[in-house]
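Researcher: Next entry: AMP-binding protein (Aromatoleum diolicum).
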Amino acid sequence: MNAAEILLSVGADAAIAIECDERRVSYAALRERVRRAAGAWQALGLKTGERVVVYAPDSDDWVEVYLGAIWAGGVVIGVNPRLSMGELTPILTECEARFVWCEAPQAEELVALVASLPGAVEVVSSGVAQRDWAQCLAGAKGVDAVQLDSEDPALWIGTSGTTGTPKGVVHAQRTVVNAHSFACGILGLTAADRLYASSKLFFAYALGNSLFAGLRAGATVILDREWPTPERVEFMVDRHRPTLLFSVPTLYHKMLQMGIASRLADRGIRHFVSAGEALPPAVRRGWCEATGHALVSGYGTSETLCLMLYSDEESGLMRPTPLTDVRYAPGVDPDVPQRVWVRHTTVALGYWKRPEAQADGFCDGWFSPGDMFLRHADGQLEYTGRNDDMLKIAGQWVSTLWVEQSLAAACGETLHQIASVGVSTADGLTALAVLAVAMPGQSAEACRRMEAGIAALPGHRRPRWVHWLDALPLTATGKLQRGRLRALHEDLMGAAA
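Model: Predicted structure:
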């Protein structure tokens, strides 16, 4: 088995596999490019199981290099091309990379970086680099895919780091086999579809649910080198006319605020999918009102690659996606928020050199994320946040997510960002703090609405502190860094004192 070969086994030769800017790559052309890229990797000396880091913006070249490394028997890791050299250093060191592929503008700086690192990592690029990729490709012959066991590693994905240090998640060759189960079973994905994800390919959400799912169905995958903004999403929709759009709640919210949502209503998009973070009920309702399309919200992680739970209902309650099994820890009160276990062929092998996290989250093909859910009588699940986001206050369970959503609805368009976190009071009790960012020019009104929203909450859900900031800490993928919120609150309290 070879994951890259499986991904390219379906698409009709003449069908377009990848669109990026003006470039349109057919399945026949992509198969040949990947075969030659694999030959180039082998000529460079890549051995089975060695790691290749891809450090570049999304493009058809990215796909060629990425799949070519897997085809050649390597293990590939896509990383955020916006990472600084300082941020990239621990990734290269921990994964023990053999090669780093980048575009020409980054090559010189990368060469200087790897010279200071242990091991034999080499920079591959077209132009100034230790190994010239264009030259290697020109002289390469296409090779057959290296056949491996279904449980052998194929790729790594870095966790988002929302609660601490990112971890390397190791995925097997079989992870791509059913990567399209959600898109086919829930969205009706066929070879005639055109998939566009605003998130980038180093992010599991886009990699698994757009690129891998699209290729497995023989459909067209639309890529964009540029960083996503509301205006850029509208541009991409107008230019490439996707039929399935994958984005995140933050962008959907901004598109609603800017009036872009209503302009996307008649662009031929059959389904809008939201994942990457919890979808606020106000955004769900607003999007449906503006476009006439209900957002399909999904839940997945780097460890599952694809979405494991989804909701297409106003309630937001979730059900398992096709081929996903869910189980619960025995003896846990079903009325109490709890972790769940999920099983699917896309679930990872585990973490790289993280034995404690491995033992906590993986067991016999099952994975249990650190997020908490409430079980409902009909088998549906209500997402309540991470394990440390569920708090006991005045003897009652409180989810920081519930508080954030209630206050966001109260503040409406005056609020840009909000987060709540459980903190300790001087007397050792647990209380809530809110950190918020107002929209430009809306500070006074946002503050007034926040106070009214807090007053309307039940007593045990009312935050004791509200901090107004210029911005909240975000990860490289644009997700809230919840692991920093408590320390941020303490710093602000110390400064005020």
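Model: Note for the record: The mean pLDDT is 92.
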